[in-house]
Design a protein that fits this description.
By secondary structure, this protein is α/β, with parallel strands linked by helices. It has 15 helices and twelve strands. Helix 4 packs across helix 10 and helix 13 packs parallel to helix 15. The termini are far apart. The structure holds 4'-deoxy-4'-aminopyridoxal-5'-phosphate and glutamine.
Length: about 375
């Protein structure tokens, strides 16, 4: 049988590759982004209660209404902006499905989508499998600053969408208010849709405010926000997320969503809705992860790695150019095999594999794991 792959250049994701290598070599796994401590007992109990109380059949297509109300209240509380729970919020099987469905709902063959590299790995394949063309804008370590003249020069009559991600995976940088205003100016009076991947919205450090797209009114009316409860509530395996957008955009989204997944795990949705009644459940994340970031960075301050403290997400990038000039993928693999610590090389998220000699380490780990990891890093 002969067939033409729609994604001939796509292999297995770096997350799967590095986690498998970590298992094979019995290494500390700071590669794939997930916690190695349990999700909250209270939340687990609320999901069990939902199962025991009959939330076992299909959820409404757009999501359990209690959960959509809780999400809507959160936007009101944090940003003083509303998304209508019935018309403007849809619960999804993680942010990945939301991103894929948004792209499928709007991108036609030869449409252009601007993405900033290093880019989270699900954006480009989703664009390309739908026939679209990713237009990369390459950012560079250590500050990953955006040159807005360059962005402006990449916008064309074919530009259908711009994907942004702040706090940013993998670099741990965040967009400033000025960046958001630049994006607002650039897209004003256009038909460009913005996909704002805000899965790390609650993990922003040093008293900085998260610049959600909903705070900018002209951006809000053209944008989707995507979010992930897996990141917020330390249970990436549950794969529950959501997206928000103004009604006309959301109604197009749902046309695809209803045939893509129809609806997602009902008891988990109900349990999360009940858990979110207390805003501390998500407002405590900044402090929780800042302590972990600071513990990790203090412990490696005498190592040969160079770094700027992560501004958001639960990732820290470390520059190893003082240690070796090996390619980052080779170095990450060697560290896993010989030093028993796994990380993610950033070049895989860059255009043409640009290698800035930086590795990403996930600090959503127990303090004990972070202490062990730092001991290893100080020996390298
Ligand atoms: N976007 C970014 C930037 C991510 O880091 C991740 C991984 N959590 C996702 C989207 C996907 O989230 P989910 O696991 O909810 O599909
Ligand atoms: N978001 C996670 C990370 O950046 C990985 C998710 C996945 O494995 N697909 O590490």
């Amino acid at each position: 049988m002969v067939y033409n792959s729609k994604l001939p250049h796509v292999g297995t994701t770096i997350f799967t590759v590095m986690s498998a290598l970590a298992r094979e070599h019995n290494a500390l796994n700071l590669s794939q982004g997930y916690p190695n401590y349990p999700s909250s007992q209270k939340l687990n109990d609320l999901v069990s209660n939902a199962m025991n109380n009959g939330y076992n059949q299909y959820a409404p297509m757009a999501g359990n209404l209690d959960l959509r109300l809780a999400i809507s209240n959160k936007y009101e509380l944090l940003y003083n902006h509303t998304y209508h729970p019935e018309k403007e919020i849809t619960v999804t099987a993680g942010a990945t499905q939301a991103i894929y469905t948004i792209i499928s709902a709007f991108i036609r063959p030869s449409d252009e989508v601007i993405i900033f590299k290093p880019a989270y790995d699900c954006y480009q394949p989703a664009i390309e499998v739908n026939g679209g063309k990713a237009i990369p804008i390459q950012l560079s370590a250590p500050d990953y600053k955006i040159d807005w003249n360059e962005v402006s020069s990449k916008v064309s009559s074919e530009t259908k969408m711009i994907i942004i991600n702040s706090p940013h995976n993998p670099s741990g940088t965040i967009w400033s208010k000025e960046d958001m205003l630049q994006l607002q100016k650039l897209t004003h009076d256009t038909n460009i849709i913005v996909l704002s991947d805000e899965v790390y919205e609650h993990i922003v450090f040093d008293e900085t405010r998260h610049q959600s797209i909903c705070l900018f009114s002209s951006l809000k009316q053209r944008s989707f926000i995507t979010a992930s409860f897996g990141k917020t509530f330390h249970n990436t395996g549950w794969k529950i997320g959501y997206c928000c957008a103004p009604e006309p955009l959301m109604s197009e989204f749902r046309k695809v969503h209803q045939f893509n997944v129809f609806s997602v795990n009902h008891p988990a949705q109900k349990g999360i809705a009940d858990y979110m009644q207390d805003p501390k459940t998500y407002l405590s994340l900044n402090t929780f992860f800042q302590q972990k970031r600071d513990l990790f960075l203090n412990l490696i301050s005498e190592s040969r790695f160079k770094y700027r403290p992560s501004q958001g997400t639960y990732f820290q990038v470390l520059d190893y150019s003082n240690i070796t000039d090996e390619h980052d993928v080779d170095f990450a693999k060697r560290l896993t095999k010989d030093f028993k610590i796994a990380s993610i090389p950033l070049s895989v998220f860059n255009e043409d594999g640009k290698d800035d000699k930086v590795l990403r380490f996930c600090f959503a780990k127990t303090d004990e794991t972070l202490i062990k990891a730092a001991e290893i890093l100080c020996r390298i």
